[in-house]
Design goal:
The complex is a heterodimer of chains A (107) and B (424). Chain A has a single domain, classed as Cytochrome Bc1 Complex, Chain D, domain 2 (Orthogonal Bundle), CATH 1.10.760.10. Chain A has 5 helices and no strands. With 107 residues, chain A is mainly alpha-helical. Chain B is of the alpha/beta class. Chain B has 2 domains: 244 residues, 3-Layer(bba) Sandwich (FAD/NAD(P)-binding domain); 135 residues, FAD/NAD(P)-binding domain. Chain B has 12 helices and 25 strands. In chain B, the strands form 8 sheets. Chain B has a 5-stranded parallel beta sheet with strand order 5-2-1-9-21, covered by helices on one side. A 4-stranded parallel beta sheet of chain B has the order 13-12-11-17. The two termini of chain B are 41 Å apart. In chain B, 49% of the residues are buried. Classes of the chains: A mainly alpha (107), B alpha/beta (424). Chains A and B meet through helix 2 and helix 4 of A and helix 11, strand 23, strand 24, strand 25 and helix 12 of B.
Chain lengths: 107, 424
């Protein structure tokens, strides 16, 4: 959400040189906004309490695969299915890019 | 640089250029001011996110009389001996460290014409945008025979803090064979499954102490209640014969309560010498919102679903239990979710930050017995002039025990998460 001008496409162009065709990199600003819903349960610091896993620092491909599995109802958990159902492919890519950009804080 | 009239005129075009490029409000004057009233899940979250994401470009003040905030959510777990009072009580130090100026007094009123908040000591806080998250007030005249003076003898504990401790002490003192009467509230009210989770926790404590001849009677003005099938299944399974829920067709109306004799009279039966009467009365938006004429005939505040902005004052955003959030229930999770939308929109208005369409979420977990938690929730968006659910879910009766255990772990994880999000 900060500043707002960082587009995933630019990040992709800068970092994907020589890495083959650029995959759909998400837009960080959108991802940061959408992440506000995630961090009510999944702590932004990467710390874990109870049964809610940490999601910061995940590889974007892994994040996208897991969210799509919730969206397609292939993974259990009603909370995640409901939240994923309203997200477009761009939304999920944006979230993936944002969470990939975060580093877990050391406890 | 000393600027006089001549240099100002000479540099006029350059200055104009800066004003076009930069956010106009930030240059050449003091930072714009955001005042937040109420340090609960709505206000604390809004204050933190506005300060954090504006990186010092806005002056954010959080007005909250309490230095320590006890959460209503998970206060039932305190009643059930799953959590200590300290574990549900939190300070504002880390919010202050994000750049929020704390003002620990009561906000007395809002001067909407002057855009100022009047504090209890008479001082005034001017604002460019106001975030109002005052929570609920109780309708002390909604239960015949009961008034504010009786909240010691017949506690409500629907605003957490000292009332929660009173209810806990009274619950622990209920003897075997004693009767607890809960007067449940009419819609709409804070935390729809809350009264019934509370009943579960009361039964849990009585059962753990071996007082299984004690009984809990719920006098409910509603024909049905949140997660009804799930709670009733759980009560039958874990607390057989201990919980009796009576809807209006059965109890035939609450006639009166008598705090001196702990009597509850309904059209159906009179309960005398109850060991504990828990009165949860009807509710409305906090007084400051009503006095500022931000409420409608429902007693709550209409808002614009795209932004959480008041429907009657474009300089005020209203969050949480005090607002009319369409299909979103009144919950701490909802307030936290709404606060993030409002924070984004306020930065958009005052700093020209990018905004995205509002998305909201909520989940309410309820503990029935150790390791058995049920949940209800959904994702929400602005649609046709209201906040409407785009996707919802609810636990099912007869579910697998492992799934309920997983929910129980989620419930603990969610609390840690929202506390880190609000107060961390």
């Amino acid at each position: 959400m900060r500043g707002g001008g960082i587009f995933g496409a630019l990040v992709c162009a800068a970092f994907a040189a020589g890495a083959g065709p650029c995959r759909a990199a998400g837009e960080i600003a959108l991802g940061e906004y959408l992440s506000a819903t995630c961090v009510t349960c999944h702590q932004k610091s990467g710390q874990i309490t109870g049964g809610i896993p940490a999601i910061v620092g995940w590889h974007a491909d892994q994040f996208i695969a897991v969210m799509n599995a919730y969206k397609n109802k292939e993974r259990d958990n009603e909370v995640m299915r409901a939240l994923a159902s309203g997200l477009s492919a761009d939304d999920i890519a944006a979230l993936a890019a944002y969470f990939e950009s975060l580093k877990p804080l050391k406890p | 640089m000393l600027i006089n009239r001549r240099t100002l005129l000479r540099n006029g075009s350059a200055v104009a250029g800066v004003f076009v490029l930069g956010a106009p409000a930030v240059l050449g004057q003091a930072r714009q001011r955001v005042v937040v009233i109420g340090g609960g899940p709505g206000g604390a979250t809004a204050a933190k996110y506005i300060a954090k994401d504006s990186e010092g470009k806005l002056d954010v003040v959080l007005v909250e009389p309490k230095k320590l905030f006890t959460t209503c959510f998970h206060s039932n777990l305190f009643l059930g001996d799953y959590k200590t009072f300290e574990e549900i009580t939190h300070g504002y130090e880390k919010i202050a460290a994000q750049g929020v100026r704390m003002n620990h007094q009561m906000a007395a009123s809002i001067d909407r014409d002057k855009k100022e908040v009047v504090l209890a000591d008479g001082s005034r806080l001017p604002y460019d945008r106001l975030v109002l998250s005052p929570g609920i007030d109780l309708k002390y005249d909604s239960v015949p025979g009961w008034s504010q003076q009786d909240e010691q003898s017949m506690p409500h504990a629907w605003q957490a803090g000292e009332q929660t401790r009173i209810l806990k002490a009274r619950l622990d003192a209920v003897p075997d064979g004693g009767t607890i009467v809960m007067i449940a509230p009419p819609n709409p009210y804070r935390c729809p499954p809350g009264p019934y989770e509370r009943v579960s926790m009361m039964a849990h404590v009585l059962k753990a102490k071996g007082r299984t001849k004690a009984k809990i009677v719920i006098i409910d003005p509603k024909e049905s209640f949140s997660k009804q099938g799930l709670f009733q299944e759980g009560w039958e399974k874990y607390y057989p014969g201990m919980v009796e829920w009576l809807g209006p067709k059965v109890h035939d109306g609450l006639k009166s309560v008598d705090p001196k004799t702990n009597t509850v009279e309904t059209g159906f039966e009179t309960y005398k010498n109850a060991a504990l009467v828990n009165v949860i009365p009807a509710q409305m938006a906090g007084k400051i919102a009503r006095d500022a004429q931000l409420t409608n005939q429902s007693g709550f505040c209409p808002i614009q679903p795209e932004s959480m902005k008041s429907a009657v004052d474009p300089n005020i955003y209203i969050l949480g239990d005090a607002c009319i959030a369409g299909e979103m229930p009144k919950s701490g999770f909802s307030a936290n979710s709404q606060a993030k939308v409002a924070a984004m929109m306020i930065r958009g208005e005052l700093l020209g930050a990018r905004t995205f369409p509002a998305r909201y979420a909520n989940t309410c977990w309820s503990l029935i017995e150790t390791g058995d938690v049920v949940k209800v929730g959904g994702a929400y968006e602005a649609k046709e002039g209201a906040i409407k659910a785009s996707s919802t879910f609810i636990s099912k009766t007869g579910e697998d025990a492992d799934l309920r255990k997983q929910n129980a772990q989620e419930n603990i994880g969610w609390y840690g998460g929202i506390i880190a999000d609000m107060f961390g």
